[in-house]
Specification:
By secondary structure, the chain is an alpha/beta fold. Helices cover about 35% and strands about 15% of the residues. It has a 6-stranded parallel β-sheet with strand order 3-2-1-4-5-6, sandwiched between helices.
Length: about 180
């Protein structure tokens, strides 16, 4: 298990509980045996299609996706967002679509059928682990995330990872467009 995920978790705990000596902290990694072995093939096309995987609640970035969709509708209506799962915010339907709940075993096929070619992990808090980021990396897919917590640490050493410099929708969209061009054009 990558040591940077363990390091990020330990740092967050010690920051929250400064009275604990680091020698007393033991981090036990999550088990991820459920990952499918099939790796989806993405469409290498000119249009950016952003994928967001999972149940996107408010702390997982639902309002950010809502704001990003509004920005896309204003400045670049050819870009789409596909939520492979569900989202807890009302988003512009001309930009955002949802697949609904899914079984983990069907994730690669859903990704392939969705037309997504870049993934965004929009969580707005420093998570100590992300199954979604782990799954996307295991499938060798391009993933972008904010500079927060273990997902950020994990993506910093991943060749298809992008750490976003801002949480402002316009800057994120610009970075995702550049990332997509670097990957496919």
């Amino acid at each position: 298990f990558p040591s940077h995920d363990i390091d990020a978790s330990k740092k967050l705990l010690l920051k929250a509980y400064s009275g604990i000596h680091d020698s007393r902290v033991s981090v036990v990694p999550h088990r991820v045996e459920h990952l499918p072995s099939y790796k989806p093939k993405l469409l290498h096309r000119a249009e950016l299609c952003i994928g967001v995987v999972g149940q996107v609640s408010f702390h997982k970035g639902a309002l950010f996706i809502q704001r990003l969709a509004a920005e896309i509708a204003k400045i670049n209506p050819s870009v789409r967002i596909v939520i492979i799962g569900t989202i807890e915010a009302h988003c512009d339907k001309s930009v955002v679509s949802q697949t609904g709940s899914y079984e983990h075993s069907n994730l690669p096929q859903l990704i392939e059928r969705s037309g997504v070619n870049v993934f965004l992990f929009p969580s707005i808090w420093p998570e100590t682990f992300s199954y979604v980021v782990h799954e996307l990396i295991q499938m060798n897919l391009p993933v972008a995330a904010f500079r927060l917590g273990a997902p950020s640490d994990r993506l910093s050493s991943y060749t298809k990872g992008l750490l976003l410099d801002s949480m402002e929708p316009r800057q994120v969209l610009d970075q995702l467009i550049s990332f997509h061009k670097e990957l496919y054009l």
